[in-house]
Each structure stands twice: as structure tokens, then as C-alpha cells.
Amino acid sequence: MKNVTDSFVSLGHWPSAGSFGFNTDILATNLINLGVVLGVLIFFGKGVLSDLLDNRKKRILNTIRNSEELREGAIEQLEKARARLRKVEIEADEFRVNGYSEIEREKLNLIDSTYKTLEQLENYKNETINFEQQKASNQVRQRVFQQALQGALGTLNSCLNNELHLRTISANIGILAAMKQITD
């Protein structure tokens, strides 16, 4: 029993066992801190890093698959284009064999249709010009009428008394309503 109590008593003699203190050995504390930080990073960062790498691997594989599909599509399009080229070359040879008579016929038909289109466009242009001239002359007539009416009203306003003025306005409103019905 004495040995057990001696061991407790000897613990009481250790001055650093129950207190905190500063370790002034910079190299030892930096290595310990670095080890702790690296341990935490490895422990917690391993899952995140592996997820990032897996995602990156999947994206790379998807990109490779897409590239392969695009390459196969491009090869198909190239083959189709080559087939069309061969077909066009055969047709060109047929045109050379048959001569240029069909081309000349098409050329004459195109020239005729172009002349007809030009005539139609000329007719449309003339109709549009006539329409715009009529529209402009109608606008001028309306403006002259409005100015004449305003001048007459100005003259009447300066020359008439109130009773005569009210009768003249009523008569003019009747005339304008009748003219509006005629123009509509």
C-alpha cells in the first residue's frame, strides 16, 4: 500500500502535470501543429477530394463519349456528303452528255419570268405612286378646308354677338356632321 500512496505523492511533485504553460521550442511546436493540420486535412478532406476526382473522372469520360459520338456523326455526314457529291457529278456528266439545250431552255424561261416579274413590279410601283398622290391630295384638301374653316370661325367670332354666334356654331356643326357622313 505504501507503494500506491508513494506513486500518488510523487505525482504531486510534478509541477507541470496540472498546469498549462508555453512551449518555447518553436521547431517542435510548428512540427506538431503541422502534423495536426495535415492529419485533419487528410481525415476530412479525403472524402471531398475523392468526390471531386470522381466527378472530374465522370466528366472526362462523358466528354470522351460525346466526342466519340460527334466523331461518328461527322463520319456519317462525310459519307453522305461524298454520296451527294458522286450523285451531283453523275448529274453533271448527264447534263454534259445531253448538251446545253435544256440549260438554254431554262435560261429563256428564267428570262421570261424575270421580265414578267419586272412588269408586275412596275405596275405595283405605279399603283403605289397613284395611291400616295391621291392620299397626299386628300390630306392637302383636308388641311385647306380646316384652315378655311378656322379663318371663317375667327372672322365670325370677331363679328358676331353671343346669340348669333351660338346659332352659327350650331349650323356649322350640322354642316360638318353632314360632310362627315358623306366622307365616311
In words, what does this structure look like?
The chain crosses the membrane at residues 26-49. With 184 residues, this protein is mostly helical. The chain has one domain. Helices cover 90% and strands 0% of the residues. It has helices at residues 2-12, 26-98, 101-159, 162-183.
Taken in chain order, the helices and strands follow as HHHH
- Mean pLDDT level: 81
Number of domains: 1
Helical proportion, percent range: over 70%
Counted beta strands: 0
- Supply Rg: 52 Å
What coarse outline follows from CA principal-axis ratios? flat
Q: Give the DSSP E fraction (strand runs of 2 or more residues).
A: under 5%
| Computed structural class | mainly alpha
Task: Describe the largest sheet.
Answer: none
By DSSP (H or I, 4+ residues per run), the number of helices equals: 4
Family: Belongs to the ATPase B chain family.
Main location: membrane
Coiled coil: 64-98
Organism: Cosmos bipinnatus
Keywords, separated by commas or semicolons:
184 residues, mainly alpha, single chain, flat, disordered N terminus, 0% strand, plastid, 4 helices
Secondary structure: elements and pairs:
Elements: H1 2-12, H2 26-98, H3 101-159, H4 162-183
Summarize, please:
The protein has helices at 2-12, 26-98, 101-159, 162-183.
